[in-house]
Amino acid sequence: MRIVPLLVTVSLFAQSPTWIEQYRPAADRLIAESQSSDFAWQRLAEVTDTYGPRLSGSLGLERAIEWAVETMQKDGLDNVRKERVMVPRWVRGRESLTLIDPIAQPLPMLGLGNSVGTSMNGLIADVIVVGSFDELDAKAAQVKDRIVLFNVPYTNYGQTVQYRTTGPSRAARHGALAVLVRSVGPIGLRTPHTGSTNYAEDAPKIPAAAIPVEDAERFQRLQNRGVRIRVRLQMDARFEADAESFNVIGELTGREFPQELVVIGCHFDSWDVGSGASDDAGGCIVTWEALRLMKKLNLRPRRTVRVVLWTNEENGMRGGNAYRDQHLAELKNHVLLMESDGGVFDPAGFGFTGPDAARAQVTAIASLLKSLGADSIAASGGGADIGPAGTAGNIPMMSHLVKGDYFLIHHTPADTIDRITPKQMSDNAAAIAVMTYVIAELPQRLGR
Q1: Residue 21: other Cβ atoms inside 10 A
Q2: In a domain, 12, yes or no
Q3: 45 and 69 share a domain?
Q4: What DSSP assignment string belongs to 43-54?
Q5: Last residue of some domain: 196, 218, 236?
Q6: CA-CA distance, 197 to 165, in Å (whole number)?
Q7: In contact, 246 and 83? CB cutoff 8 Å
Q8: Catalytic residue among 62, 95, 251, 313, which?
């Protein structure tokens, strides 16, 4: 008997640009509460200052996971729990890069995640600089027994990251001894960027490391002048046995449709340099904060809101895949998946992938966020951790968008809380809280 008027109401909502106004009071309360203090920034400081970088399999990550569980329980969230995930344990070990010719000089570097190491004494070889895969293939005869440097200018992450992920195997097929990659990001302050490499099964595994943009350009100039470039690379990198880790889950149980889920989250692991503040502890805190704000204001929506702190996004994707596998039976009850993994700078809005009717609704909801500058809805949304479940369940997906030079500090020692302001944390938490609350509060599921 109750279903018919609800369907009629949603139909009227879809036709009327004013339907969103009934949610404005709650939205304004969430925004005001979030902006009333620096709570979110202080919580980010607590986790990054106390536990530091959180590479999968590390003590820092596992202690941070225990802290998250205890703190969610103190916040009064429902059904707080850990879900077991076995993760790879890659250990960086000692590493160094030293220029031998034309002059002796130590150089900044970071081994790439999942890379193999060198021998104990390292390797000494000449460097050949290439600017593309085509140039690598064209110079194949010169590559054997050398170290290949991919000096590829940064355009965007999707285009340039392929040299980090597949470059080592492509160079190895031509007989290269190791690979250096120009850091995948804009020029910084001589800062190397780490990140995963993926070895092909049909190529030898060779050591791989990143060097700063400035040093890659220097090597290019030396090669252009015909100067020999000779270096010593030493890396102790290795894999150890898989380690036990966990996805962390907390919920705010829905008052009317508790079985229907709006899932938001981030990845809690990070690389082992910096403190992983932007990538991605900040994303964890602003999504978690959405539930805390609703709880504090006694805004319990119709549907359950679930926050997930995924493990092992950086070098294995085990957490996202495990969530899909462990929740297959309830994927049909997932109304939306949202991920925050683009840093925390000034809010810009959200990306959205889903049906047109749902897009119209989230666009209307975003109008409540104009004061935050977060009222735009981009053409597509998703994320590495929500992708497996979203694809398996054909679930609408959103990504949290910000305005900032994320890739300047991405995967570097400069990824610390000092690059994030308290206002940015509060504003982004508010934007996520409003979007999440209204989607969870709609009379019918998103898009219906």
Answers
A1: 13
A2: yes
A3: yes
A4: HHHHHHHHH---
A5: 236
A6: 4
A7: yes
A8: 313
The answer to whether 313 is a known catalytic residue is yes
What average pLDDT does the segment 175-181 reach?
98
Of the candidates 153, 168, 152, which has an alpha carbon nearest to the alpha carbon of residue 112?
168
Q: What is the pLDDT of residues 243-258, one digit of tens each?
A: 999 999 999 999 999 9
Tokens of 266: 């981030």
Q: What is the rounded CA–CA span in Å between residue 351 and residue 396?
A: 11
Task: Give the residues across from 267 on adjacent strands.
Answer: 310
Q: Which domain holds residue 131?
A: 93-236
102 and 80 together in one domain: no
Q: Which single residue is written with the structure tokens 């006694």?
A: 298
DSSP H or E run through 392? helix 387-393
pLDDT at residue 11 is higher than 90: no
CA distance linking residue 434 with residue 29, whole number of Å: 9
d(CA 311, CA 323): 10
Which residues lie below 8 Å from residue 311, measured CB to CB, with a gap of 6+?
Answer: 56, 61, 65, 85, 87, 245, 246, 247, 267, 268, 269, 318, 319
pLDDT at 5 over 50: no
Residue with structure tokens 């900032």?
A: 404
For residue 112, what is the DSSP state? P
Rounded Cα–Cα distance for residues 178 and 199 (Å): 13
For residues 338 and 420, state if they share a domain.
Answer: yes
pTM > 0.70: yes
What's the one-letter identity of residue 32? A
* Domain limit, last residue, from 188, 205, 236: 236
- CA–chain centroid gap for 280, Å, is 6
Question: What distance in Å separates the CA atoms of residue 250 and residue 309, rounded to the nearest whole number?
Answer: 9
Which residues are CB-neighbours of 135 under 8 A, at least 6 positions away?
Answer: none
Q: What is the CATH number of the domain that holds 362?
A: 3.40.630.10
Q: Is 81 in the same domain as 45?
A: yes
In a domain, 383, yes or no: yes
Q: What is the pLDDT averaged over residues 9-14?
A: 38
CB atoms within 10 A of CB 293: 24
Residue 361 maps to a domain:
yes
User: Does 8 score more than 50 pLDDT?
Assistant: no
Per-residue pLDDT tens over the stretch 381-395 = 999 999 999 999 999
Residue 208: strand pairing partners: 179
Whole-angstrom Cα distance, residue 380 to residue 195? Answer: 24
Judged on CB neighbours under 10 Å (0-12, 13-18, 19+), 318 is buried
Number of domains in the chain: 2
Q: How far apart are CA 124 and CA 138, in angstroms?
A: 24
Do 186 and 328 sit in the same domain of this protein? no
Is 303 in the same domain as 370?
Answer: yes
